[in-house]
């Protein structure tokens, strides 16, 4: 069940098994995407990326279109490609977070929590966005039967209404996260 993957993620998180928690969430995203879209129309990676594109505003807590970053020497890599090809595939197939990405904790500034996105190598990926993916899975209409009357508590340090604080490299301030 998809709910089991989210509950597993929370157990792993509490045990400081961060990558394992994220793998469980990324698997739950894949299963939810397959529920939403027919396998006959799209390949698995297309289904996954289409789901991410549909939910982009909920993932980032802001921008919902053309979210692209500098990554591994390339400009304008779409966020859905970073999540699927780099995070998901490397975590699942290689068993570790790629060296080109590290996870960023949110910061508190003037009593507001911000997800921190660092747009230089290695890219600083907001942990809050991973938990936003979990929220999307929990709230997906396709999963209503699994989460009805169930209280899932996402870690409070990753609220769904966090803003975005972007850090640009000093040598190239034109790198943006939105095309």
Topology record:
Blueprint: H1 2-14, H2 18-36, H3 44-54, H4 56-60, E1 68-71, E2 74-78, H5 79-94, E3 101-104, E4 107-109, E5 112-118, E6 123-126, H6 127-139, H7 144-147, E7 163-167
Parallel strand pairs: 3-6, 5-7
Antiparallel strand pairs: 1-2, 4-5
Helix pairs in contact: 1-2, 2-3, 2-6
How would you portray this structure in words?
The chain has helices spanning 2-14, 18-36, 44-54, 56-60, 79-94, 127-139, 144-147, and strands at 68-71, 74-78, 101-104, 107-109, 112-118, 123-126, 163-167. By secondary structure, it is α/β, with parallel strands linked by helices. The chain has a domain at 2-96 and 128-156. The strands form three sheets. A three-stranded mixed sheet has the order 4-5-7, with helices on one face. A two-stranded antiparallel sheet has the order 1-2. A hairpin with a 2-residue loop joins strand 4 and strand 5. Helix 2 (18-36) runs parallel beside helix 6 (127-139). It is globular and about 50 Å long. The mean pLDDT is 89.
Keywords:
single chain; 179 residues; alpha/beta; 3-stranded mixed β-sheet
């Amino acid at each position: 069940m998809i709910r089991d993957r989210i509950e597993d993620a929370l157990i792993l998180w509490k045990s400081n098994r961060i990558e394992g928690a994220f793998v469980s969430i990324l698997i739950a995203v894949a299963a939810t995407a397959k529920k939403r879209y027919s396998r006959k129309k799209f390949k698995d990676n297309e289904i996954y990326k289409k789901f991410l594109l549909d939910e982009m505003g909920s993932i980032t807590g802001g921008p919902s279109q053309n979210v692209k970053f500098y990554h591994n020497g390339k400009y304008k890599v779409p966020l859905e490609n970073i999540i699927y090809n780099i995070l998901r595939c490397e975590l699942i197939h290689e068993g570790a977070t790629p060296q080109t990405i590290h996870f960023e904790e949110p910061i508190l500034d003037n009593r507001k929590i911000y997800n921190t996105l660092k747009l230089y190598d290695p890219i600083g990926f907001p942990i809050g966005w991973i938990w936003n993916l979990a929220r999307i899975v929990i709230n997906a209409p396709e999963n209503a039967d699994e989460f009805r009357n169930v209280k899932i508590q996402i870690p409070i340090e990753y609220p769904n209404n966090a803003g975005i604080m972007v850090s640009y490299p000093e040598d190239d301030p034109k790198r943006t996260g939105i095309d």
